[in-house]
Amino acid sequence: MNELGGPGALAAILAMAAVTYPMRAGGFWLMAHVPLTLRLRRILEALPGAVVVATVLPILVREGLPAVLAIAAAGAAMMIRRNDFLAVIVGMTVAALARAWLY
Amino acid sequence: MTASNPAAAAKPDWSLAGLRFGALLALPVLPGMIAFGVAVGATAARKGFSLVDSILMNALVYGGASQMVAMEVWPDRITLASLAALALLTATVNARMLLIGASLRPWLGPLPSWQAYPMLHLSTDPGWLIAMRYRAEGGNDAAVFLGASLLVWAAWMAATTAGYLMGALVSDPRRIGLDLVMPIFFAAMLVPLWRGRRRAFAWGVAGAVALATEHLVSGWWFVVTGAIAGSVAEGFADE
User: Fold this and answer.
1) Is residue B6 one of the residues assigned to a domain?
2) Residue B7 resides in a domain
3) Predicted interface score ipTM higher than 0.90
4) Helix (H/G/I), strand (E/B), else coil: B141
């Protein structure tokens, strides 16, 4: 475990907060001045899914079969029950079992 | 206030009943919120953050997905360059909030700035979904948005703190799959985001660019390049 903390970590947290609030307030502010174009709206709408895929896929490739099985199980649970709590529990259980058996 | 939209002139109400009603509407999203909060808190403990830093991050950044990604890439020593990288990564993951704010404009726009702008710090995906459903049904009480958002925020702070304390107790997080909580939760989030073929194209671009970037550049830049490439691809994919 790394020893984090001190002024560096605090500065980074404040920097993260400083870029996040403008994202929350920016769209609200902007709409009073210029309307969002359809294209920009579509780009922003596609962003959450693109963030997820771009984050998860390289992790899957790196972590191998247990991660693939865990994510497939979580996705299936989500499709069937639409419950993210259940999906996380199922995914973690499959990851733990797969690692115990495969390694 | 420069309200340029005359159609949205109706000033929203502000009532205590609305505050309570908003909190009531938010109850169904709490289990998912708590699950994710526990995972974020546990990740902070696993990565070696102090409890105070974890609480500050959860209260001030208040964007679980961006925090997860940032904590995964957190450097051992913060330099000016790594500070800028963390800020850029956070901004990319949170850029979707621009849309949330934009869609709140017609409703909350007539409020005085000192009421609207502090409230926007509490906006979240679930809180926004709840409030917009209420709005679509004809509601016009701004306190409903605040009530839903406050309850979600309180649940978030409680869940992340509990997750931190639990995570600090787990000696081998890999054995129980704790290191995979972020990708698992992210992948589950994809299910409701599915919109058919055009989305598949955007996701394919995002994945391909992310993998290529990971191959070429060390660090977590693949999140930024993949996310931007995928969403721009969808924006320009005319059918």
Assistant:
1) no
2) no
3) no
4) strand
